[in-house]
Amino acid sequence: MYVAGSTNDGIISKACYWKNGTRTDLPSASYAVAFAIVVAGNDIYVAGAYVSGSATKACYWKNGTKTDLHPSGALSSDAGAIAVAGSDVYVAVNYKVEDSDDDNEDKWKACYWKNGTKTDITVEGKAQANDITVAGSDVYVTGCYFNSGPKACYWKNSTKTDLGSSSDFAEAYAIAVVDPEVYTAGRYIGDGDESGACYWKGTTKTDLSDAESIALGIAVVGDDVYTAGFTFTGNFSDYSTKACYWKNSVKKDLL
Predict the structure, then answer these.
(1) I need a surface site. Which of 43, 77, 141, 227 has the fewest CB within 10 A?
(2) What DSSP string runs through 164-185?
(3) Phi and psi (nearest 5°) for 105?
């Protein structure tokens, strides 16, 4: 079992991964974090970010060797998801730029990198890429863009598909493709800002819980859809969470 994350030596955070409980630190001269991991053959790929000067910069490590993915001119960036297909490495990256058309506020843009070449995911305003997968020659990225609130979507080869109507607020965090179907997991946001875990098959939404909840991962095996996430109670300043997964909308608590 491989798990990506970070550890703190009391001074700075260090990116690392664990294989069957044994930790391997990833080289960086300063603060670094790891967000995602994939293993292909004998190679271990980890996506994350590190701090250089005043900027956080997206990167990935292959067997401990770091490759920078910080877009030119970006104020900061991070790499939150990674996929490997054959000899090709795909990384989803979000980066912050100065938006001079909006009172000099910063905005986030989404992109993905293939073998060091960046492809922007074009939408008006802010966008966020949360997961990436590859099926054949097609690249799928899921996340959201912002238009009076977050709008869940996925991009296939940079072409956007909305997940919900123009009035729906939602976010998508994970994607799986079982040709020809596209599955995404995330949450919808109700009129009272309540959060409900859900998944989409194509653009059809299935609600997973009446409780406050978020779905962060998804996998499909045969006819079964597995979604991982958590439920929570309380408010932003005082809340508790409980890890769980759903199999075909039936929840199993993990705590």
Answers:
(1) 43
(2) S-TT-EEEEEEEEEETTEEEEE
(3) -75, 160
For residue 150, say if its preceding peptide bond is cis, omega within 30 degrees of 0.
Answer: no
Parse the chain into domains and list their residue ranges: 2-194
Q: How far apart are the C-alpha atoms of 136 and 62, rounded to whole Å?
A: 22
The model's pLDDT over 81-126, given as tens digits with 9 standing for 90+, comes to 999 999 999 999 999 987 555 544 568 899 999 999 999 997 777 8
Measured CA to CA, the distance from residue 202 to residue 65 in angstroms comes to 37
166/32 Cα distance (integer angstroms):
37
Tell the burial category of 153 from Cβ atoms under 10 Å away from its Cβ (0-12, 13-18, 19+): buried
CATH 2.120.10.30 fits 2-194, yes or no: yes
Tell me, what amino acid is at 50? Y
Helical residues (DSSP H) of the chain, grouped into ranges: none
